[in-house]
Design brief:
The protein has two domains: 1-35; 39-103. 77% of the residues lie in helices and 0% in strands. The protein has helices at residues 5-34, 45-68, 74-84, 89-102.
C-alpha cells in the first residue's frame, strides 16, 4: 500500500523530532558521565576535599542554631546569613538545597 504525501511528511517529522531528542539524551549522558570529574583534577582536589566538610558543618550548625531558638526559621536565617557573609547566589542555592534535603 503506497504511503500518502501527508503520511510521509508526518513520518519525516517524527524521525526529525526523534533525532533532536536523541541529541539531548546524548548530551545528558555525557554530562552524567563527566559530572564532577574536575573535583579530582590536581587544581581542585585539595580545595574540594577541604571545602566540602566545612560547608556541611556550616549548614548543620545553622540548622542546629535555628532549632534552639523558639521561633527559629532556617529559611529566614539563610537569607540573613547570605547577606551577613556575602554569599553569592550559586553557593547560596547549594546551601539552601542542602538544608531543604534535611528538612
Amino acid at each position: 500500500m503506497p504511503v500518502s504525501e501527508n503520511t510521509d511528511g508526518i513520518l519525516q517529522h517524527k524521525r526529525l523530532v526523534a533525532s533532536y531528542i536523541q541529541q539531548v539524551i546524548n548530551d545528558l549522558i555525557k554530562r552524567a558521565v563527566e559530572h564532577d570529574y574536575s573535583k579530582f583534577s590536581p587544581e581542585e582536589f585539595d580545595a574540594f576535599e577541604e571545602a566540602t566538610p566545612n560547608l556541611k558543618n556550616l549548614v548543620y550548625g545553622w540548622i542546629a542554631a535555628t532549632r534552639r531558638v523558639k521561633d527559629g526559621d532556617i529559611d529566614k536565617g539563610l537569607v540573613i546569613n547570605k547577606e551577613r557573609f556575602h554569599i553569592d547566589d550559586q553557593l547560596f542555592q547549594i546551601i539552601k538545597n542542602t538544608v531543604d534535603s534535611l528538612k
